[in-house]
UniProtKB/TrEMBL annotation:
UniProt protein name: MFS transporter
Taxonomic placement: Bacteria, Pseudomonadati, Bacteroidota, Chitinophagia, Chitinophagales
Pfam families from the UniProt entry: MFS_1
Keyword annotations from UniProtKB, A to Z: Membrane, Transmembrane, Transmembrane helix
Transmembrane intervals: 30-48, 54-75, 87-106, 112-133, 154-172, 184-206, 236-259, 265-287, 299-317, 323-347, 368-389, 401-421
Length: 493
């Protein structure tokens, strides 16, 4: 299979590429669900990992983002982003297959050190592939449908994450209870399935067309210093860094607070996280349309204050009546899921828009590296602050003094980032009052519509996650493209 870029893409090639990138996203989400997050922690704990080793596993994806610099150098030298992405993604999937195979071949090979060693290679090559992938998508996906496309892709990936996580969690619990001797075999199988699914995603990437990029001939040091000299992009970097710091400062400790301070059972915490994910799934399509119609900055100006308000609400939730605690937590997780979906989508799209086409990879990699530093630092600072407030403050403000001060510190950092957002300029930016009015009108229209539907018809139209997932795979890009006024022309890059 030839992996050479094309001078010009046809309408059919672009639509084919959109479907293939969707398939790669689902394959990647399957891979990450099985071998990252909660399941990776469970595997590490089964192997006897210490807190330091678990911390290293959590930090690896962020720490390896520095290797996106290698991606820029490779693109500069070979000017072929598809080949770099495909080879990097292939090399990133191989360690997963090795991790899954070793326990089956050698019973004493399931060590945490080997897990960390192999996963470091996986994250390293994934970072190299990710840098060139971002630039590739910047040129492949038409700007008119950028927000709608990525919101649809993200929604399907989140649906897959929720359904697959529930299925795997129930399966692992069943094996632990009835077949404990096969627990390591189940974990090994998860890595093997993850690697195979990831290879299917690599195949989809290899078939995805690439518009020929503009060659990058400048010195590598000058390249990475250039985005920092562009005032508007530098302002975006500052806002994005402070926001991601505020987000990661407190968000990892919500579950800790609910379990240790509020005394909620683990199953309640898991269900609340699922509520947040479902809220994100159901709202991201709306945010995608708003991104194309209004602007990404307008979405952030609406969603960020909502999320900051939820952070502040954590400061007072400890004194709520027991009967009101759980309903309030549900409402907060709904708001956090919906607002975070809008913020994440808008930050991704505004970075793509502000990055020049001829040097997109340099700008996007610079953005990822800078924000990764703040993303990795924030949880460490949050842990130190939580310990500090716990040991030095005995003021029981609203009933939970040490946590109140901690959450308020996170909210204050978020407010500071909103001040910095004002300086960022985006083409097509509109007053947020227009978007608020549109959202209110849409909500009222849907309320009236559902109010007048018969009960039987209302139940008939309710969708399960599986039906939504199948419908998403047949997503009609022709309708979306027609709606956005893009006909496939002018795709030469």
């Amino acid at each position: 299979m030839k992996l050479q870029p094309s001078d010009q893409l046809t309408n059919t090639q672009v639509k084919t590429g959109l479907h293939l990138i969707l398939k790669d996203g689902l394959a990647t989400e399957t891979m990450n669900t099985l071998t990252a997050g909660t399941f990776l922690v469970a595997i590490a704990l089964y192997m006897g990992a210490s807190n330091i080793q678990i911390g290293i596993l959590a930090a690896l994806p962020t720490l390896t983002n520095i290797f996106q610099l290698v991606s820029v150098w490779l693109v500069q030298r070979f000017n072929n982003r598809r080949k770099i992405t495909v080879i990097g993604a292939f090399c990133a999937r191989v360690p997963l297959l090795v991790i899954g195979t070793l326990p089956l071949l050698f019973s004493n090979s399931a060590s945490v050190s080997a897990l960390i060693f192999l996963l470091s290679f996986q994250y390293l090559f994934a970072s190299i592939a990710g840098g060139s992938w971002n630039s590739w998508m910047r040129d492949l996906i038409p700007q008119q449908i950028l927000g709608s496309y990525f919101s649809h892709r993200s929604r399907l990936m989140q649906i897959l994450n929720v359904t697959l996580s529930l299925f795997i969690a129930l399966s692992i619990d069943h094996i632990k209870e009835h077949y404990p001797a096969y627990e390591i075999t189940a974990y090994a199988g998860m890595f093997i399935i993850s690697g195979i699914t990831g290879m299917w995603g690599v195949y989809a990437l290899a078939r995805t067309p690439e518009p020929k990029p503009t060659p990058i001939n400048d010195n590598i040091v000058k390249l990475f210093s250039k985005p920092l000299t562009v005032p508007n992009f530098r302002k975006l970097l500052v806002f994005n860094s402070i926001w991601i710091f505020a987000f990661n400062l407190v968000t990892p400790f919500f579950s800790v607070y609910m379990m240790k301070t509020l005394g909620l059972p683990l199953v309640y915490v898991i269900c609340l996280n699922i509520v947040s994910q479902v809220s994100s799934i159901t709202s991201i399509k709306l945010w995608g349309r708003c991104s194309d119609r209004y602007s990404n900055k307008t979405i952030i100006r609406i969603c960020a204050p909502v999320y900051i308000g939820c952070i502040m609400a954590w400061s007072v939730i400890g004194v709520m009546n027991a009967a009101l605690l759980l309903p309030l937590l549900v409402v907060m997780h709904i708001l956090m899921g919906a607002s975070n979906a809008g913020i994440t989508l808008a930050l991704q799209n505004i970075g793509l828009k502000l990055a020049p086409a001829e040097e997109g990879i340099v700008y996007l990699v610079t953005k990822n590296i800078v924000t990764a530093v703040f993303s990795a630092t924030a949880p460490l600072v949050g842990g130190l602050l939580a310990d500090f407030f716990t040991s030095h403050f005995v003021i029981h403000l609203f009933g939970r003094g040490q946590w109140n001060l901690f959450f308020m510190a996170g909210a204050a950092t978020g407010v500071l980032s909103m001040k910095l957002l004002k300086a960022v300029q985006e083409d097509g930016e509109l007053d947020k009052k227009l978007l608020v009015a549109n959202l209110q009108h849409t909500f009222k229209k849907r309320v009236r519509y559902w109010h007048h539907l018969p009960v039987l018809r209302r139940k008939f139209y309710q969708r399960t996650a599986l039906v939504i997932f199948k419908k998403g795979l047949s997503f009609d890009f022709d309708d979306l493209i027609k709606f956005k006024g893009w006909d496939g022309k002018n795709t030469k890059k």
